[in-house]
Every structure is written in structure tokens, then in C-alpha cells.
Amino acid sequence: MQKTSLKEIKLIGISLQGKTTNQNGQSAIDCGSHWQKFETGNYAEKIPNKMSNEIFAVYHEYEGDHTAPYSYFIGCKVDSAAAVPPGMTALIIPATEYVKIIAKGIMPDCVANAWRNIWTSDIKRAYKADFEIYDERSKDWSDAEVDIYIS
After folding, report:
1. How far apart are alpha carbons 67 and 36 in whole angstroms?
2. Quick check: 56 and 100 in contact, CB under 8 A?
3. What is d(CA 145, CA 148) in angstroms, rounded to the nearest whole number?
4. pLDDT lower than 50: segments of the chain
5. Where are the beta strands (DSSP E) in 26-106?
């Protein structure tokens, strides 16, 4: 667990319709089906001016703490001039201090377990935008590594 300051990040991708919640496992269902939509729709290939092949999964617009509803977004980092294609949206991750945690192990369990640890930790959270970054290290689902940033 390390603290790090990040500059503003512009993303283009797709937003989950409505909000989700961690109550009764609802977010696992909603976020899982949103990932399926992102992948089957080949959205990563359709995003213009990508700065890398990393995929960001963002939790934002919290209505309170981790027990309250929040919005979910999946997309890629783009340069500031990138135009948003039809059917997609842009999202800005604000510049601020983040705590970086690395989830390691079998997917998607390692990420779910990392979040359970975050929820019960004493990390002082801002509940602005929290996100995961999926890159080359997360391709092998039997031995994955995913960076999680907590605002």
C-alpha cells in the first residue's frame, strides 16, 4: 500500500446505466455484465486517441461510503483532445492523492478480495473516484496483477 499523487486522467468508454450497490452482491452482477458488454462490443478498439491499451474500471459518484449506491465506468485513457464517439461517454478522474494497492492472484477473486480488505481497512477515503487498471499483468487470469487506486 503506497500513497501517490496523480494528475487528471481523461477516459472514454461506457457507463453503467444507473447506479449499482455492494448490497446483496448486486455490484458483482452489474459490473460483471458491464465488462461483458465492454468486451463483446469491442469498445477498447473503438476508442480514439488512446494513450495505452490499459483498461480502467472506475467507481465514482458515490452517494456515501462503500455501502451506498455509486456509478461504474469502463474505458481507456485518452489525450485531452480526443472526441467522444457516439454511444460512449467521457469521464475525468480528478487529480488528487491516491492509495495504490496491488491485487494479485486468480481473477476475478483477487480483485474482489482486495476490495473486501479495502472496505474493512482504516484507509481514509474521499469517495471521489476509485479505479482499477487492467494491463498486460492482468491477462493471465490464473496469475493476475491489478492496480487499484483509492481516492
Report:
1. 24
2. no
3. 10
4. none
5. 55-60, 71-77, 89-93, 96-105
